[in-house]
Amino acid sequence: MTSKPSPDKELFTAWITKYALSSGIVERVVEHTGIDGMIERRDCYSPEYFHGDDWHYSKEGAVLKAEEMRKRKITSLEKQIEKLKKKDFRK
Questions:
Q1: pLDDT tens figures, 60-84
Q2: Which of 12, 15, 26, 48 could tie 41 with a disulfide, CB 3.0–4.6 Å?
Q3: In the chain, what are the domain boundaries?
Q4: What predicted TM-score, i.e. pTM, was given to this entire model?
């Protein structure tokens, strides 16, 4: 059974970047929850909630965020690789 959108809340399209590095950017029809910066997808069996930087009003904004996430992840992985290269197990 799916939840119906609230009649007093306006539905709009949002681009979700919460899982952009694993699932890509996802387009969803959502509504504001009334809590600052939070949106809700209610057209599914179990409602999904997204906060702050996890969603965007435009695809362009979502792409910029996903690129930023990708760059941060690459930097983090490069640091991990360097740390592993420096490990000496013979000590």
A1: 999 999 999 999 999 999 999 999 9
A2: 48
A3: 11-86
A4: 0.80
